[in-house]
Each structure stands twice: as structure tokens, then as C-alpha cells.
Specification:
This protein is α/β, with parallel strands linked by helices and about 525 residues long. The protein has three domains: about 270 residues, TIM Barrel, CATH 3.20.20.70; about 90 residues, no CATH class; about 50 residues. The chain is built from 18 helices and 16 strands.
């Protein structure tokens, strides 16, 4: 089985994505996770550009990575400057990484009009930089920036830049679609041409500006590339980079190429969610392979078929990438979906007279009132247990009071006081928040922390949606509140419906905490 090298640049290229900002410590945590799944190369950053990346490389020297080679990134030497006097190269060498990644210009437009340089000097910069770093006993990966655009404009010169890197001793040459505008058939044709000319291993670095980064990466591998560069979840500048959570399973499960062990591949979903947590980015549910909805089934015919033969509606087994099959509950589902979910959740039907037929009828009634359980599986599990008499609330609300204060030229402040009962004990707490729901959330956490040996700090509310179900009654209309919560292992949704937005929010919030606590059951009264 042919092996493909996985080069992760989440910590460098991924951190250039909008709203993403990793600390040096964040980068170390992600690097450990990447190493844990067998990623071959981890690009940590550009040590010559900022103190944070310098700090990362200092910390990385103390970490015993098992699989990965940590890589420092930088540019070729400056024009008309000896390599030994170039501050950027000095910083790269000081990072003491076994591998360095150097980018150079392949597009004559950039050389002439952006750098104001000569084509000959650019070739010298590439050759001398690669040769210098090889002489310092570093493995050198050469990134040919804007290669495909450069090749389409001036193929002879673009190939000369690769010749310079190859003759200087580059270990791997990576063809970059930096603007993300090249199409898969172009990638395939050009990569084949390069492969027949350059006697060095090739890699691919694709951006997603046309939504084709994964397809372009696959096309390059088909044409001879043996290294794929990308980021977890496709994070990156503009529209992002090739998403390794799609690239890896496509190459391994669809094309029979070896990227990592099957055991490590089963941690891919966990890795995706971990990186989104550290990046403070809401997970994209429809992300292929690792998204929460990647193997979700809602239509009754689909559910019935999947229960008989999963491959009827699933292109791979979700367990192969650490994901799971989900059957969504709605007014479109029938008894078979209820039976499936009950078995999945370990709930025995029939309690209090609620069999699958009666539960299905109750769900349709609730959805007519405004509930929607397909995205609120946490609330559905609690509902199923409540209807069948298998749920004993771990806490009960006695009362709460919320106040919002607004002063001139100052933002609103919210305060919540809450009284809850756990067993025969009662607790009253108060907290502030950015809004009434946030204040309630903070007050409830303070109260529950006194009773439950559960790390509620690991539980976060990652999404909060309010929708008016039917707006003819204006501000007194019924509203639906959806809350998505997560911890380090799972994501769950809960729902509340009321004519009062605070009450609907409380229903969803209470279900979220009840679900979390019922899953742990580590109670100390």
C-alpha cells in the first residue's frame, strides 16, 4: 500500500483564518493531538515573524513527539543578501527543528511586480537558501508559492524555479495553488508534467477559494504527489485550506492509500472537535466525515433502510473516522425511528404505557406546538426517559429571578438569582452575565458545582438561537430557543418553547445541564 505523508499547517496557515488566534500554549496542545493521530509533519509557525511563534518552538523542544517532525516555516533569503546574514534564516535555524519549510516565488508576476526583483536573482535566492539549509543538516521542504498560476502564465520559468530547488538538494517540493483558483483537471495535468521532469518527491498545497481544495489535493495525488498539506477543519486565510479531515479519509478509505493507522483514523472526529474547541470556532455540523450531521438520517424511508443495511445510505462506516450514526427525530419519523433511537440510547419502551406508536404521536403533537427534536437530541433523550418513567431529575428548579439594568451610554447588565433543590438540600445563588440567559447559566453553574463532582467548566454553550414560530401575535408570539452545548467528548442540542423568551431559554438551558449530569452520574450530596 502506497504511503502518503500528512503535513499539517493548522498552527501556521490555519491560524491566518478570520477569528482564529492561537497562543503558543494552544499550539502545543494541538501539536500533541496531531502527533497522537500520527501526522507526519506539523508546521508550527514562522519564527522570524513574531515572538509567539518563537515561544512555540522553544516549548516544542521540550515535548517528546512520537510520530511528527516539527517544522519551522520561512521565506528564501532576501535579495542580494548572503544566507549567513539573513535574519529570517537565522531565526529558522535557532528554532532547532529537524525540518524546515521554505517558500519561494514561482510566478514571474510576483517576482517582477511585487518583489521588484529580477528573475535570475529569484532563482539564486531559491538555490542558495535550500543549499544553505541542507548544509546545516536540515530536511528541506520547498513550497513553490503560486506555482500553478505561475505555470499557466510562464511554464518555462515556473519549472526553472523547481529545478533550482531540486538541484540545491530539496527533499520535497510542494506545488502550491496559493490563490485557490486552479481546477482539478488543471492540477492533474500540470502535476503530471512536473512529476515527469523533477526527480524529487512532490507535495500539494491547495487553498479553497473555489471550494475545490480537497478535490485538487486528490487530483495531485493521482498525478504523483506523495505529500498532502492542509489544516484541520480547513481553517485558513480567505476560504481556507484543504481540509485534512476530508483529505485523509478520502485517500485512505476511498483510494486505498496509507496516511495513518486505522486506529488513529478512528480519532479523526475527536481531533476535529478538539481543534475547533481550542480555536473557539463553532463546529460545522455538515462537515464531511467528522461533522455531527455527516451520518444523520431523518426521512422515514432512509431510517428504515439504514436499520436493515447501513451502506444503503452511508458511503463508509461512521466508526472508521470516529463518528457515529444518528437518527433524527421529527414529525417525519415513524415507529422504526423511535425503536432505533430507544435501542441506541438504552431506553426500554413501554413504561407508563408509552410504546413507540404512542411516543411518535406525542412527538408529532409537540412539533405542532413548535418543538423540533431533529437538532435537539439532548432534549429528545430526556423526553423519551420522562415519558417512559426512566428519568429522575438530578436537580429541580424552585424559582429564579432575572433583572436587566440599562444606564445611559453603558451596555446592559443582567443579574440572575436562582433557587434549586438537589435531593433534600436547597441552594440559592446569584450571578451576573452579558445577558439574562448568560446570567442564568452562570448562576446555575454556581449552584450545581456545590453538589456535583463534575467539571462543568468543560461544558460550554456554543450556539444559541431564537426563532419566532408564528409571528402574527407580534411580541407575544410563541418562540423556540435552541441551545447547542459541548464538552471535550460530545456535542448535544436542547430546546425550549414558550411565549416568554426567558422561559423558553430556561427550558433549553435546564435540559442541557440535566443531560450533561445524567451522562456522568458522578454525584456527591
Amino acid at each position: 500500500m502506497q504511503s502518503i505523508l500528512i503535513f499539517d499547517t493548522t498552527l501556521r496557515d490555519g491560524s491566518q483564518g478570520e477569528k482564529i488566534n492561537f497562543s503558543a500554549e494552544d499550539k502545543i496542545r494541538i501539536a500533541r493531538k496531531l502527533d497522537g493521530v500520527g501526522v507526519h509533519y506539523i508546521e508550527g509557525g514562522w519564527p522570524g515573524s513574531n515572538p509567539k511563534d518563537v515561544c512555540f518552538f522553544e516549548l516544542a523542544q521540550k515535548v517528546p513527539f512520537k510520530y511528527a517532525r516539527i517544522t519551522a516555516f520561512g521565506s528564501t533569503r532576501r535579495p542580494h543578501t548572503p544566507c549567513s546574514q539573513d535574519k529570517n534564516l537565522e531565526a529558522i535555524l535557532k528554532s532547532e527543528t529537524p525540518t524546515v519549510t521554505i517558500f519561494g516565488k514561482s510566478w514571474d508576476l510576483h517576482v517582477r511586480k511585487i518583489m521588484k526583483n529580477s528573475l535570475e536573482e529569484n532563482l539564486s535566492m531559491i538555490y542558495e537558501t535550500v543549499a544553505y539549509l541542507r548544509s546545516r543538516e536540515r530536511e528541506v521542504i520547498y513550497d513553490a508559492e503560486h506555482f500553478f498560476d505561475g505555470y499557466k502564465d510562464n511554464p518555462e520559468y515556473a519549472l526553472k524555479t523547481l529545478d533550482a530547488a531540486a538541484s540545491a538538494g530539496a527533499d520535497i517540493i510542494v506545488l502550491c495553488d496559493t490563490n485557490g483558483g486552479t481546477l482539478p483537471f488543471e492540477i492533474e495535468r500540470i502535476t503530471k508534467k512536473v512529476s515527469s521532469r523533477i526527480p524529487v518527491k512532490l507535495g500539494i498545497h491547495a487553498h479553497n477559494d473555489c471550494g475545490l481544495a480537497v478535490a485538487n489535493t486528490v487530483a495531485a495525488v493521482r498525478s504523483g504527489a506523495v505529500m498532502v498539506q492542509g489544516t484541520i477543519n480547513g481553517y485558513g486565510e480567505r476560504c481556507g485550506n484543504a481540509d485534512l479531515t476530508s483529505v485523509v479519509p478520502v485517500l485512505q478509505l476511498k483510494m486505498g492509500l496509507s496516511c495513518m493507522t486505522d486506529e488513529n483514523l478512528r480519532h479523526l472526529t475527536e481531533l476535529s472537535r478538539y481543534v475547533s474547541e481550542v480555536a473557539n470556532m463553532t463546529p460545522f455540523n455538515a462537515r464531511p466525515f467528522v461533522g455531527q450531521s455527516a451520518f444523520a438520517h431523518k426521512g422515514g424511508i432512509h431510517v428504515n433502510a439504514v436499520m436493515k443495511t447501513p451502506k444503503a445510505y452511508e458511503h463508509i462506516a461512521p466508526e472508521a473516522v470516529g463518528n457515529e450514526r444518528r437518527v433524527l427525530i421529527s414529525d417525519l419519523c415513524g415507529r422504526s425511528a423511535i425503536d432505533y433511537k430507544a435501542r441506541e440510547l438504552g431506553v426500554k419502551l413501554g413504561g407508563k404505557g408509552f410504546n413507540s406508536r404512542k411516543i411518535s404521536t406525542e412527538i408529532k403533537r409537540l412539533e405542532h406546538e413548535g418543538y423540533q427534536f431533529d437538532a435537539a437530541e439532548g432534549s429528545f433523550e430526556l423526553l423519551l426517559k420522562r415519558l417512559t418513567g426512566q428519568f429522575d431529575p438530578l436537580f429541580r428548579l424552585e424559582s429564579f429571578r432575572v433583572a436587566v439594568e440599562k444606564e445611559k451610554d453603558l451596555p446592559c447588565r443582567a443579574y440572575a438569582t436562582i433557587k434549586v433543590r438537589v435531593g433534600d438540600q436547597q441552594e440559592i445563588t446569584a450571578a451576573e452575565g452579558n445577558g439574562p440567559v448568560n446570567a442564568l447559566d452562570n448562576a446555575l453553574r454556581k449552584a450545581l458545582n456545590k453538589f456535583f463532582q463534575v467539571d462543568l467548566e468543560q461544558m460550554h454553550l456554543v450556539d444559541f438561537k431564537v426563532r419566532v414560530i408564528e409571528g402574527s401575535d407580534g411580541t407575544s408570539a410563541r418562540v423556540r430557543v435552541f441551545i447547542e452545548s459541548r464538552d471535550q467528548k460530545r456535542i448535544w442540542g436542547t430546546i425550549g418553547v414558550s411565549t416568554d423568551i426567558i422561559e423558553a431559554s430556561w427550558q433549553a438551558l435546564e435540559d442541557s445541564f440535566q443531560y450533561k449530569l445524567s451522562r456522568t452520574r458522578d454525584v456527591s450530596l
